[in-house]
């Protein structure tokens, strides 16, 4: 919260942009670069999509969402790092296991998984979005096996296998003493109570949602470009901020009003553990397969097409406004007033800063 509070304010320093045509001046303060900040993800998002460009296979893709049931949420909140990891693992292994099954596809799939923890109302709702290749590399590596265009696996089979894999690893984490209990989960310290809790979860139906499949690689990129680096709420959804309430848009043209303290509490529910990776790749798209199985799959899908190298180096030498222009078409050097001149960077004149705090502002390279 401190990083977001000070983002793009005088506390973090900056420079002055001056138009070389009309003289318009605009202070440009440094960003906090925190990955939870609604204003600091555009360039990082564009760079990530650029890096993934050569990893995308020329095939159709499916979108599958794995959701943890509401009964697990108090336990998840006390064990975020551990349980989020189990969620990723169970979702990926569910897809990979069914993909390798000779009775279903008999192939190695490619999966990109993205963790989200919120609803439109900012409630805690942990789930993983999986972008899955519409087919896979045969287990012998000799050919590509295409999945049907509108159907990957039965949703009920996905749901029950996911439930079994997740609860098995959760029980193992309990036996290994890797889970923390407290608050409303304190009773689960007892072995009998925990087993009853798990048994109840086994009897419940778990939600796995297979969305409409993507038509091709271009649709996947448009989706990933706006989805992977999203935080719980964007500035565009804020409708009114007052001393008594915060109003923001939810879904279907509706909105919700929360007290400021409740709004901040809900926002902080979605701060990830330090260093936790929320975008992960499995199967053909895993890092270890990038130059082996992935290349083989691409050559089978596009015979005679040379395998493209992952772009390196060149864009790193560019200053970030130029790089942003190349990736997104947004030109930060164009004067917003006259639309003719260029904004020239100058030293920022001294300004009155915020009151002294107990701690200094976050380092620009930290908490990214």
Termini gap? 13 Å
Give the CATH level 1 class of the largest domain: Alpha Beta
Q: What's the architecture of the largest domain, going by CATH? A: 3-Layer(aba) Sandwich
- Strand elements, count: 14
How many domains in all? Answer: 2
Helix percent reads: 25-40%
Q: What profile does the largest beta sheet have?
A: 5 strands, antiparallel
Give me the CATH fold name of the largest domain.
Replication Protein E1, Chain: A
Unreliable parts:
307-317, 352-368
Class from helix and strand fractions = alpha+beta
Shape category: globular
Instruction: Name the helix and strand elements from N-terminus to C-terminus, one letter apiece.
Output: HEEHEHHEEEEEHHEHEEEHEHHE
* Helical segment count: 10
Taking all residues together, what is the mean pLDDT? 86
Strand portion, in percent? 15-25%
Q: Gyration radius, to the nearest Å?
A: 24 Å
Strands side by side in the biggest sheet = 9-3-6-5-13
Question: Can you put this structure into words, describing what you see?
Answer:
The protein is of the alpha+beta class and 368 residues long. It folds into 2 domains: 1-39 and 320-368, no CATH class; 59-233 and 264-301, Replication Protein E1, Chain: A (3-Layer(aba) Sandwich). Helix content is 31%, strand content 20%. The chain contains 10 helices and 14 strands. The chain has helices spanning 2-6, 42-52, 73-78, 80-100, 155-175, 191-203, 217-227, 260-268, 293-301, 320-328, and strands at residues 14-19, 25-29, 61-67, 107-108, 110-118, 124-133, 135-138, 144-146, 208-214, 238-241, 246-249, 255-258, 279-283, 343-346. The strands form 4 sheets. Strands 9-3-6-5-13 form a 5-stranded antiparallel β-sheet. α2 crosses α10 (320-328). It starts with a helix and ends in a 22-residue tail after the last strand. The model is unreliable at 307-317 and 352-368 (pLDDT under 50).
């Amino acid at each position: 919260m401190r990083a977001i509070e000070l983002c793009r304010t005088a506390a973090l320093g900056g420079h002055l942009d001056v138009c070389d045509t009309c003289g318009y001046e605009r202070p440009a303060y440094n960003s906090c670069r925190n990955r939870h900040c609604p204003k600091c993800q555009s360039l990082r998002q564009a760079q990530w999509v650029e890096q993934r460009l050569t990893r995308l296979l020329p095939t159709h893709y499916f979108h599958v969402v794995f959701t943890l049931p509401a009964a697990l949420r108090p336990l998840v909140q006390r064990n975020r790092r551990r349980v989020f990891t189990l969620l990723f693992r169970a979702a990926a292994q569910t897809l990979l296991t069914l993909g390798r099954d000779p009775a279903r596809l008999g192939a190695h799939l490619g999966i990109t998984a993205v963790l989200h923890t919120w609803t439109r109302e900012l409630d805690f709702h942990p789930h993983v979005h999986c972008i899955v290749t519409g087919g896979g590399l045969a287990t012998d590596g000799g050919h590509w096996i295409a999945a049907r265009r509108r159907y990957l696996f039965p949703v009920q089979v996905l749901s029950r296998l996911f439930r079994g894999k997740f609860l098995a690893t959760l029980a193992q984490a309990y036996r290994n003493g890797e889970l923390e209990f407290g608050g409303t989960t304190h009773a689960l310290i007892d072995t009998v109570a925990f087993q009853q809790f798990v048994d109840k979860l086994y009897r419940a139906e778990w939600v796995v949602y297979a969305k409409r499949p993507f038509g091709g690689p271009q649709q996947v990129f448009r989706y990933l470009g706006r989805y992977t680096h999203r935080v719980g709420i964007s500035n565009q959804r804020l409708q009114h901020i007052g001393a008594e309430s915060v109003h923001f848009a939810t879904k279907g043209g509706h909105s919700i009003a929360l007290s400021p303290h409740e709004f901040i509490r809900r926002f902080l529910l979605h701060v990830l553990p330090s260093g936790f990776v929320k975008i992960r790749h499995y199967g053909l798209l895993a890092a270890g397969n990038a130059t082996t199985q992935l290349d083989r799959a691409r050559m089978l899908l596009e015979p005679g097409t040379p395998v493209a190298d992952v772009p390196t180096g060149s864009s790193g030498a560019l200053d970030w406004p130029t790089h942003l222009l190349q990736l997104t078409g947004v030109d930060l050097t164009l004067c917003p007033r006259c639309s003719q001149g260029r904004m020239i960077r100058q030293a920022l004149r001294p300004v009155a800063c915020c009151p002294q705090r107990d701690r200094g502002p976050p380092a620009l390279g930290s908490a990214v």
